[in-house]
Amino acid sequence: MGDASIIDPKEDEHPKPGFLCKQFWRNHWQGVMSIVIPIACLPIMLLIEGAEFRCLYLIATCCFLWITECIPLYVTSLMPIFALPILGVMDSEKTCMQYFKDTLVMFVGGLIIALSVEYCNLHKRLALRTILIVGCSPRRLYLGVVMITTFISMWISNSATTAMMCPIIKAILEELQANNVIDIYMDESKEPAIDGKKSPSRAAMAFYIGAAYSATIGGCGTLIGTGTNMVFKGIYEGRFPTAEEKIDFPRFMIWSIPMVIVQAALLFFCFNVTHLGLFRPKSAIGQQVNAGAGVAPAVKAIVSAKYAELGPMSPHEWQVAFWFAVMIALLFCRSPGIFTGWGDLLNRVSIKTSPCVMLPVLALFTIPAFWTCFKHFKKKGPYPSESIKSLLSWDFAHKTVPWGLVFLLGGGFALSTAAQESGMSKMMGQALNFLVTWPRVGIQFGACVLAVFMTNFSANVPICNILIPVLNEVALVVKVHPIFLVFPAGIACSYAFHLPVGTPPNAIVSGYANIRIKYMAEAGILPTIFCIVTVVLNSNTMHRLVYPAVDLPEDMI
User: Coiled coil: which residue ranges (predicted)?
Assistant: First the structure.
């Protein structure tokens, strides 16, 4: 009775309109924007007639939907399938063909092969072994983290590499704290805990953020390292299919590996200075890190114990390593240019990169992980009592492969092809005539800066889908070979170092280690600067060795 007589005075009050509007927007902004954006872009095609403007309308709509993410990225990427035919820009068959091109098959195959490395824990073995070889003092540990994260992320996804390194880093840091080397949490007087979670110290952030940034840098080292590499390759080769300067596996690595090594070294140096007290021996963190060499045996014991848990290298791991090497060899020797490749010999039909990855993929699902089945032939027990699993299970693969990325890349390829078919590309080129007076390096630098700025606020692949087709047309306007702009800008689309939303590795370490956004934004300043500078320098040095042509060839005009 007593409870029933108590009346909340707010129940009789009518909410203010401002409150209702805020609540409605907070709960339903995504639905509102998904309707407003297509309507707001309608004047693009209603005011001016032509297929190029109808294509521009669709591209503008997709761009805003990708950036705001009011509709899931992958769902937005399916929009061209119905919109391009309805708008009369490109027929259905040609549109759908863009969603499973050779480049996309190579991307999916590369992901599956990378998953086989995760499936057998070969990547973890490699990481722990490298740390043991490099050494276990604080600075050597940090060097090991940067080195192995950079290397592994060249071959498997950046997010998987970062997720693998996080528990390893946590165990290392806890051992360093247990031996009074470094504090892994900030004093709560400087940074209060939120929801009971303390903020990591600057030294701990160096390890976690360094791993995320190393994964991003390493992903730029090979064609299969990250999705943006496949995007700018696919868009460039789709726009200029007859170009002699292809973005293939060996030339990509020759172009990027020296740059990746320099960037990883600069990352190690910068974080040592800013977070680990290098050149500041009297600072608290400098004294702690310099004194940490004495606890190297204790840390080594922890890492050795983790390595021992893996046991000896199994036949499963050996076979996965073999098929991974087969894939690399097939990609390198298909048509390297410096000698006659197997793809050049089997030249009755065009052989691109997808067969190089699909042969190992087929082997992974066919060959048994362990050869105990042969005990039946030797008549020696114990005999296996059940079927033997293959090197990679389909159940693990289909649950782990990010299938949505196939739609995302395919949507970008469809829009790029539609822009060329409709004449929108030519129209954009004419609108960018003012760039003719700009120096080539200036345009290249500006494109890289724009790519880095945009990719920090949205996912890498959509930004690459938006930017690369524009740069293809800019190159035609300023009479420079498109690859001179597309390659560095495509690489720069991966350089998201400031916000967790920019790229999955940032989000992983931010959530795992409870790193505040302000600290990640600060930590990303120097890596952003030296990555932009190095990619531009590399584009005017190593690029000239790999792709000597800088002027626009006559057959591209």
Answer: none
Write out the two tokens for 196: 């009971």
> Is residue 267 within 8 Å of 210, Cβ to Cβ?
yes
Q: Is the pLDDT of residue 136 over 80?
A: no
Q: Once rounded to an integer, what is the mean pLDDT over residues 7-12?
A: 48
Identify any residues that bridge with 551 across adjacent strands, giving them in sequence order.
Answer: 480
Q: List alpha helices for 479-524, DSSP H.
A: 482-492, 504-513, 517-523
CB 325 within 8 A of CB 117: no
Spatial CA neighbour of 254 closest among 221, 219, 214: 221
Burial class (CB in 10 A: 0-12, 13-18, 19+), 132: middle
Q: What are phi and psi of 197, to 5 degrees?
A: -100, 120
Q: How confident is the model at residue 127 (pLDDT cuts 50, 70, 90)?
A: confident
Tokens of 418: 């539609």
Residues in Cβ contact with 287 at an 8 Å cutoff, skipping those fewer than 6 apart: 277, 281
What SS3 class is residue 185?
strand
Q: Please, are residues 89 and 296 in contact by the beta-carbon 8 Å criterion?
A: no
Question: Which pLDDT value is given to residue 5?
Answer: 46
Q: E strand or H helix at 429, and its extent? A: helix 424-431
- % of residues, the chain, pLDDT over 70: 92
Residue 551 φ/ψ, nearest 5 degrees: -75, 155
* The one-letter amino acid at 456: N
pLDDT reading at 376 higher than 70: no
pTM score: 0.80
What is the per-residue pLDDT across 256-267, written as a single tens digit (0 to 9) for each?
Answer: 999 999 999 999
Sign of the torsion angle spanned by Cα atoms 161, 520, 496, 259: negative
- How far apart, in whole angstroms, are the C-alpha atoms of residue 365 and residue 348? 29
pLDDT tens digit sequence for 493-509: 999 898 887 788 888 88
Check residues 101 and 484 and name the one with the higher pLDDT.
484
Q: Which structure tokens are listed for 518?
A: 């302000």
Q: How far apart are CA 69 and CA 92, in angstroms?
A: 25
Residue type (1 letter), 293:
A
Distance CA 443, CA 126 (A): 41
Classify residue 479 as left (phi > 0), alpha (psi -120 to 50) or beta: left
DSSP per residue over 129-178, as a string?
A: HHHHHH--SHHHHHHHHHHHHHHHHTTS-HHHHHHHHHHHHHHHHHHHHH
Length of the chain: 557
Per-residue model confidence (pLDDT) at position 84: 92
Q: DSSP letters of 336-350?
A: -SSS--HHHHS-SS-
